[in-house]
Amino acid sequence: MVKRSNSAIYITRRLPGPALKMLKGLDITLHNGKEPPTKEEILKRIAGKNAILCMLSDRIDKEIMDAAGPQLKIISSYSTGFEHIDVAEATRRGIYVTFTSDILAEATADIAFALILACARNIVSADRMVREKKWEVGWMPDLLLGHNVHGATIGIIGLGKIGSSVARRARGFGMKIMYYSRRRNEAVESELDAKYVQDLDELLAHSDFVTIHTTLNEESKHLINAKRFEKMKKTAFLINTSRGAIVSQRDLISALKSGMIAGAGLDVFEREPIEKTSPLLAMKNVVLLPHIGSADYITRSKMAEVAARSILDVLVAEKEPNPKYLVNPQAQP
Ligand code: DGY
């Protein structure tokens, strides 16, 4: 059992919810700034710590683990994605890597659906028109006509927890559901009448809304690129609430400009925040959000609770640590 005096924790951002209370009594170093800490700051602050509670914006690599020293026991990420952590290196050193798993599935599915509706029914342009006092005629037969959501086909890439939650919402909206996934999910297929396709291009060719819910890794980087856009319907929308780099942003911009697809709803970008010079900012056929998929009070608070609980499970465990949301069980002795 690790004693409390051996429980030095570096937290890289102030969190909503109960994390700080839960970790009270431990030796906490908190990065209080609005901006994420720089790599230099992390290198300095992590020295001698037993745990780090980090965000998806903090790259935790070998250099950081070296700077921490051998007493670092756990990297607890306040996120579902963990591509910012060198998990193989952590495992090699016996460092537990934990994440917030499916805690944010429903919240992210809500945002994906918000983007679907916003894109299909011109919600953002309509709001803008009213505020800019450009609504000059009352009701009009052809004002801001959009596309059907009800009855349309949704193509879900990745049918894990978030993808399945999106599929449930799609069912409620009377949509036809197709999905492409590494693993076939027969339970969801029969529950929601979802059609599995083995070929991504088939999904792209038939979907009115293509929505991405897969994780970012070497295989999925730029999975959606110029060749894939060619396969999509000209009337289709691309929705991305997963990770920006799954889509080639350069190819997306060309596809939007040339009318190869109708539009896109994006909560994530290859670089965050998005570059101030990005052509996306001037496009009318996109809805852009600042990575807020999980940003509701309850979800963010639960994520904080889970991230703090993982640290407690490892640092002040009575027996062999066994954190619930472990990315690398191989790190266990
Ligand atoms: C995550 O946790 O990976 C999300 O992208 C944050 O909303």
* CATH fold field value of the largest domain: Rossmann fold
> What shape does the CA trace take?
globular
Percent of residues in beta strands:
5-15%
Binned, the helix content reads 25-40%
What is the rounded distance between the termini? 14 Å
- SS summary, helix count: 12
CATH class of the largest domain, anyone? Alpha Beta
> Which regions have little confidence, pLDDT < 50, spanning 5+ residues?
none
Bound molecules: (2R)-2,3-dihydroxypropanoic acid
Strand count: 12
Largest sheet: 7 strands, parallel
Overall pLDDT: 96
Question: What this model shows, in words?
Answer:
It is built from twelve helices and twelve strands. The two termini are 14 Å apart. The strands form two sheets. Strands 8-7-6-9-10-11-12 form a seven-stranded parallel sheet, with helices on both faces. α2 packs parallel to α3 (62-68) and α5 (105-120) packs across α7. Helices cover 33% and strands 14% of the residues. The chain has helices at 19-22, 39-45, 62-68, 87-92, 105-120, 123-131, 161-172, 186-192, 200-206, 226-231, 249-257, 297-315, and strands at 8-11, 27-30, 51-54, 74-77, 96-98, 153-157, 176-180, 194-196, 209-212, 237-240, 263-266, 286-288. The protein is α/β, with parallel strands linked by helices and 333 residues long. The longest helix is centred in the last third of the chain and has 19 residues, at 297-315. The mean pLDDT is 96. The chain has two domains: 8-103 and 297-331, Rossmann fold, CATH 3.40.50; 105-288, NAD(P)-binding Rossmann-like Domain (Rossmann fold), CATH 3.40.50. β10 (237-240), α11 (249-257) and β11 (263-266) form a beta-alpha-beta unit.
